[in-house]
Every structure is written in C-alpha cells, then in structure tokens.
C-alpha cells in the first residue's frame, strides 16, 4: 500500500482542498480517494490531520429536493420534542439530557 503525501499546515499545493474547502466552493469529493494529508503541529499532542482531495475530480453538491427538505424538517422537529413531557421545547434537546431542561432539572425549591 502506497503512503499518502503529507504536507505541513498552509503548505499544500494548488489543486488540493479539504472537505470544508470543497463545500465552500459548492463541491463534494464525489467518491474519490484521499489524495494527501495535511498536518497541523500542536504542542505536547499529536498533530491535527486533515485529508485533501483533488479539486479537478470533485463533483457539484447535490441539490436539496422537496422530499429531502421535508425529511430534514421532520428530523429537526423530532429532536425538539421532550421524551418526558411530550412538549416542543423550542430548541434542540441535548442528547446528554434526553429531555427538556425543566424535566431534567425540576424546581426543587418549591418543596
């Protein structure tokens, strides 16, 4: 297996981009293999690694269809409903709590 070329932070050649950079250009990797790695050194820790893709092989981002918009809206709505009281919390319920804030932290000073 051949190893990937590794570039230092801010020293990647033209024609390569990360996923976020591709997305900002309205592109996606489109099934291509990783072309190279980008390393950002950190003190006392392992370096941060980002994968680079070739821009010339990238494909346009798929457009959102009405069905995909509806599915996304339904998924977001489901994340707002409290599992305890069944009310719409008005915000995305944290997975760490699993319920809205009033249900997770009931007012104990009223006792």
What characteristics describe this protein?
four-stranded mixed beta sheet
Structural class: alpha+beta
Distance between the termini: 67 Å
Helicity, as a percent range = 10-25%
Rounded mean pLDDT score: 91
Task: Please write the string of helix (H) and strand (E) elements.
Answer: EEHEEEEHH
The count of strands amounts to: 6
Segments where pLDDT lies below 50 for 5+ residues? none
Strand share of the residues? 15-25%
Sheet with the most strands?
A: 4 strands, mixed
Strands across the major sheet, in which order? 1-4-5-2
Task: Work out the helix count.
Answer: 3
Using only CA atoms, what is the Rg? Answer: 22 Å
Give the overall silhouette: flat
Structural summary, described in words:
It is built from three helices and six strands, in the order ββαββββαα. It starts with 5 loop residues before the first strand and ends in a 7-residue tail after the last helix. A hairpin with a 2-residue loop joins strand 4 and strand 5 (45-54). With 111 residues, it is an alpha+beta fold. It is flat. It has helices at 19-24, 66-78, 101-104, and strands at residues 6-8, 16-17, 27-28, 36-42, 45-54, 59-60. The chain has a four-stranded mixed β-sheet. The protein has a two-stranded antiparallel ribbon with strand order 3-6. The model has no long low-confidence stretch (mean pLDDT 91).
Concise synopsis of the structure shown:
The chain is an alpha+beta fold and 111 residues long. Helix content is 21%, strand content 23%. The protein has helices at residues 19-24, 66-78, 101-104, and strands spanning 6-8, 16-17, 27-28, 36-42, 45-54, 59-60.
